[in-house]
Amino acid sequence: MTSTDTGLRADADAAPQRSGRPRAQTAPHRRKEALTFYLFISPWIIGFVGFLLGPMLFSIYLSFTRWDSFTAPVWVGLDNYITLLTDDPIFLRVMGNTAYYSLISVPLGMVVSLFIANLLNKKVRFRKVFRTLVYLPHLIPIVAVALIFQMVFAPEAGPLNQALAMVGIEGPNWLMDENWVKPALILMSLWQAGGGTILLLAGMNGIPKEMYEAAEIDGAGGMRQFWSVTFPQLTPVIFFNLIMGIIGSFQVFAQVFILTGGGPDNASQMAVPMLFDEAFRFYHMGYGSAIAWILFVVIMAFTALAFATSGRWVFYESEVRS
Question: CATH homologous superfamily for 80-311?
């Protein structure tokens, strides 16, 4: 045996040791890792199947049945969907109310959040106190907020109508007028704009100062810096707020249920309160399930539209760097 053969054999024997992973222990080690992984995520899997996936599948099945929660479900095929979309004027009006509320409250809330965030990003005294005060309403339970706004919208003694009276405007009966009940709910939705404001403030703090310094050197004023530096850098946060706003606005429930009950004459009735009434007050579980899945499709359509158009206006700095 030559010295060269001896050296190659020695290298071959030493190769597994240099890899740092013994071959004999690889398969059992991986099985142990996999077992540990599934053991740790098993609570989530049980919760997902028991409380989300299972009810969703059962809801799909119910949407094709007529079920009163007490007798056996009766298979009716697409009858629930056909009735909702072609022969239920209340449902069509409810979806119109929901779309009206969403298409106005979401952009308005985003503009208010951006305006407040821009103000609170200035270097002023007590800035932290103001930021805390803006976010505090977001922590108040929605039931308490609804009761507060019930007093705010009171036709005679309410502070809103009293403020309008001071400038010579006679305020409407907000919650009992078909023309004003939806604007009242939209005004109420601005109460919780603090959540979006905090996210925008976090985004503003992440913008490099050098970008503003470069803009100043180029002669850009405050407004120009906002539209050319601040706004493009914030578009990922604005996009997130838009998606969450769409989902939340189409699922509005407590405000309507507590303040108006859908009235007057279904002028403020929304999709989720109608779903609740059909399923749990009138025991039309199949009809209510069909409403839920139509609402799901509508929300997915608006969300998909937002994602499809995001490439034209959402700026991701990481994509530019790559």
Answer: MetI-like (1.10.3720.10)
